[in-house]
Design goal:
With about 170 residues, the chain is mainly alpha-helical. Helix content is about 55%, strand content about 10%. The chain has a two-stranded antiparallel sheet with strand order 1-2.
Length: about 170
């Protein structure tokens, strides 16, 4: 998967590039699929140079730090990591500081909880090992996937920005 073809775009589009039978598994045909998308501009900004230099580990670390810093700014705190994400996205006892959801009605609380866990997981499983070592190498394909995930999280933070802008502009 190569998901980093255009660093400057602010539009993410996923296109099915190819579906090719590559074998069978349990009597079913398995297929390979490649997805291409444009990374969120804030992710591209911090990761592009590192990525193109072959420093995939550092590109992923920088992308996740960018997500963390944006959450800090939106939540108005200096907390970091998983604790930050619990503070920003948690809904008990107060409403969440950040709402990165599209759902309304009955699905809203479930989606908000899921987003909290996605952001917490990104910090615990992806950012922390890259911030606190040991400094290991990431394979390019896996780095691509982590950068796309960081981009997804950043786009979810765009929802909060849009909601705040709409609320401040009034009816």
């Amino acid at each position: 998967t190569r998901c980093l073809s255009d660093w400057s775009s602010d539009v993410c589009s996923s296109d099915l590039l190819a579906t090719v039978p590559v074998g069978s598994e349990g009597g079913k045909s398995t297929e390979a699929m490649e997805v291409t998308c444009m990374l969120h501009p804030l992710i591209a900004e911090v990761a592009a140079e590192r990525y193109s230099g072959g420093f995939y580990y550092d590109a992923v670390r920088s992308a996740l730090q960018a997500v963390e810093h944006r959450v800090q700014n939106l939540a108005g705190t200096t907390e970091v990591g998983e604790r930050l994400m619990g503070f920003a996205f948690g809904n008990k006892p107060d409403p969440p500081k950040i709402t990165a959801t599209r759902s309304t009605g009955g699905s809203l609380e479930s989606e908000q909880n899921g987003m909290q866990f996605l952001f917490k997981g990104a910090m615990g499983a992806l950012r922390n090992p890259r911030m606190h070592g040991p400094d290991e190498k990431d394979a390019r394909d896996e780095a691509d996937e982590m950068l796309v995930f960081a981009s997804f999280l950043m786009r979810r933070l765009d929802i909060e920005d849009e909601q705040r802008i709409a609320a401040s502009s009034g009816p």
